[in-house]
Design goal:
Largest sheet: 8 strands, mixed
Order of helices and strands: EEEEHEHEHHEHEHEEEHEHEHEEEE
Helix content: 25-40%
Number of strands: 17
Strand content: 15-25%
């Protein structure tokens, strides 16, 4: 057990995986708001973020540099990192939400105080460029984080229910796509594509493919041996997905995996009517099927309104035929 003073954080260590479990969220908890990458320049948008957090029953606490801007970043690298460090050092703050993604999280990694972060396990919540923080925390901090909607996301009921079950209730749900609701004989929404069937278990690791690929060869990438890798991306042509997966293969990452889930790749289709290359699914088939592990495409992960919350570091089992992800342990204490 890791305990603080008075009403401070209490985290538990899983006897099976060795993963530290941050404390679950409870109504009335104070949560920090950070922008470790891109900036938000509209005060109305930030008001909406604060109201969203309040609607969760939580109290938002903006970081000191939340409203700053430096080029396309929300402040200079040292300042954005200082906000992360301050939120994890703050005994009042029970979890940390990224307002948005963009680009810039990788630039602050050398400035993070991992001694302080490790000593104060709290849920870090966000996706897209926040993948750099999730992976660095998996490599250096040893506690679970949540790949889920950013604070500025739309938070439809599906996303909120998925997050609440994991972060508030400490549940271990089986995650499956909601069925499509189109008025057609065979709905298109919620479909999956299986590249290799079967089941596989391991600890969940992953996030945005472009961000993950950019961390290859750095000290901020965790060990993927026996992991279930989940991926998503946005606005990438199939050849770029091909290039990034090739990089992961050549770096030895793909060959270590127990299973793969490729979520949504929004805006990743052909670039024109005369496009004659591979489709995204064909690229994934080429890279994932030869791995010999359970692998499927289409999970509700990524730049979509309705998305799962996936806790990094937590053990899970996937069923590539059913397109499901079942958590085998809670992410919180």
């Amino acid at each position: 057990m890791l305990a603080g003073m008075g009403g401070a954080l209490i985290a538990a260590k899983s006897p099976s995986s060795g993963l530290i479990k941050p404390p679950r969220l409870r109504p009335g908890d104070t949560v920090g708001l950070i922008e470790p990458a891109g900036f938000t320049d509209d005060a109305f948008d930030l008001d909406l973020v604060k109201e969203t957090i309040a609607a969760m029953g939580l109290k938002p606490k903006p970081a000191a540099h939340l409203t700053e801007r430096y080029g396309y970043f929300a402040g200079k690298d040292a300042d954005r990192a200082a906000d992360v460090n301050a939120m994890f050092a703050d005994r009042e703050v029970r979890a940390v939400f990224a307002v948005r993604g963009g680009w810039g999280c990788a630039r602050i990694l050398p400035h993070l105080d991992f001694a302080t972060i490790r000593a104060n396990p709290k849920l870090l919540v966000g996706f897209s460029d926040i993948t750099a923080l999730h992976l660095a925390f998996a490599a250096r901090a040893g506690f679970a984080t949540i790949h889920g909607p950013n604070a500025a996301s739309s938070w439809p009921q599906f996303s909120w229910d998925a997050f609440r079950a994991i972060a508030f209730d400490g549940a271990t749900p089986t995650l499956t796509n909601p069925p499509g609701k189109e008025d057609r004989l065979v709905p298109l929404g919620g479909r999956i594509r299986t590249f290799r069937g079967g089941r596989a278990s391991g600890r969940l690791l992953g996030g945005n493919l472009a961000v993950l690929a950019a961390l290859v060869g750095t000290p901020w990438l965790p060990d993927f041996s026996g992991a279930i890798l989940f991926l998503e991306d946005v606005d990438e042509a199939p050849y770029r997905i091909d290039r990034m997966l090739t990089q992961l293969s050549l770096a030895g990452v793909l060959g270590k995996l127990a299973g793969v889930v490729f979520g949504q790749c929004t805006g990743c289709g052909p670039t024109g009517p005369s496009y004659g290359g591979f489709t995204l699914s064909e690229v994934l088939q080429q890279h994932l099927a030869p791995l010999g592990v359970a692998a499927f495409q289409g999970a509700a992960i990524g730049h979509v309104a309705n998305q799962f919350s996936l806790p990094l570091g937590v053990r899970a089992e996937i069923d590539a035929d059913a397109g499901s992800i079942r958590l085998l342990e809670a992410a919180v204490s």
